[in-house]
Amino acid sequence: MGRARPAANTNTGEYLQLELLDKDDKAFSWSGGGRHVNASKKLGAALYKKDSGYTKNDKLVWSYYLFHSPPGDEPLRESFREIGINLELRPNAVSTSVGNLHRGGYLLEAEMVGRVKFYKMNPRAAYDGTSGQQRNATKHARHPSTTCPPEKKKEAS
């Protein structure tokens, strides 16, 4: 039996798929970099179902939050205008989608600065951090609704 090869490159921290490597093969160079997010495939798939009630814009905005949110429980501190510029949507469309995702529990209100609300990912749907941090974060987080809750109409006065 030959010498055991390590499961990870200790210099870069990348995992080696040992079962795919022959004796003279080099490991795939991970150049994507960046952090990894733990996302619920079940909740993500339910959000993207055709009959979920969530719109294309809702799905686009949720994906934006998924890939642009800072680590941990920090909210995404970007205005709807900034998000809209990146997604090629109007700020009102972003606002509507954030409202839908918030009512459905995919996004949670995290903080207010003046009259501006900032939202974060629901840690039950996706989390960027350690498993211990995610367990703590989910203790008080509600379960997302896989069908979009209807918007409550304001009463005329």
Structure commentary:
The protein has 157 residues and is of the alpha+beta class. It has helices at residues 41-48, 56-68, 80-87, 91-104, 131-138, and strands at residues 38-39, 107-113, 116-121, 126-127. The strands form two sheets. It has a two-stranded antiparallel ribbon with strand order 1-4. A two-stranded antiparallel ribbon has the order 2-3. Strand 2 and strand 3 (116-121) form a beta hairpin. Helix 2 (56-68) packs across helix 4 (91-104) and helix 3 packs across helix 4. It is elongated.
Blueprint of the fold:
Elements: E1 38-39, H1 41-48, H2 56-68, H3 80-87, H4 91-104, E2 107-113, E3 116-121, E4 126-127, H5 131-138
Antiparallel strand pairs: 1-4, 2-3
Helix pairs in contact: 2-4, 3-4
What share of the residues lie within helices?
Answer: 25-40%
End-to-end CA span:
82 Å
Q: How many β-strand runs?
A: 4
* Unreliable parts: none
Rounded average pLDDT = 84
Overall structural class, as computed from helix and strand content, comes to: alpha+beta
Largest sheet: 2 strands, antiparallel
Number of helices: 5
Q: Rough shape? A: elongated
Give the strand order, joined by hyphens, for the main sheet: 1-4
Percent of sequence in beta strands: 5-15%
Secondary-structure element sequence?
EHHHHEEEH
Radius of gyration, taken over Cα atoms and rounded to an integer in Å: 20 Å
